[in-house]
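As a warm-up, study this chain.
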Amino acid sequence: MQTELDQVNSILAFYEEIGFKRQNNPLYPQDDLNDPLQAVRNCGQALDCSNWFLDLAILHMYFSGDAWMEDTECDVCEENEVYTDVLQEWSDISQGAFLPQNITESWESDEGPIKVTFILNSVKREIEPKWDEDWLDMDVLDQINEIIAGSGRSFEISTPDQNVMVLCLTPEQKARMIKERDFPFTERIIERVAAQQPLVRQVL
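Now compare it with the structure written out below.
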């Protein structure tokens, strides 16, 4: 019978197998991360095979070079230039698929319209986030995915609550995460909510 530690180690091994690189998140005490079982307990996640969001916690703690996770209510306004910072952070997890330079964020008023311009592969690009008070518009990832369509990767998200996880994946990685980990990508969460199904991991 698989122990709780075996369960955590098997999740870590799965993500390493599909190409994620172990990189401990500096936001967590490193002594805690040396004990994966205790680290999971400390972040409040149930070590239960039905916990659909356990993988998100493990990715956030142990694969910070591949996984970005933040609260989407993050004081978005002109003076904070949140999109400028976020695009750079998404670049850092993109595995080379999205490397924008000279990022510039402009607002016509406190409520937009907002434009973010950058240079990618020597071409000037522009995205237009929608103003939503102090919330981050995650739909800009659809615009970015159109721009990087030829890279072999796309940005994918999971939104268990107002926090969101962003990953930059190959189609093969995403397919395996769904098949082998029943990963809660946002579109799958929406489908289950619409079908009034419980948000639990289906044991595969």
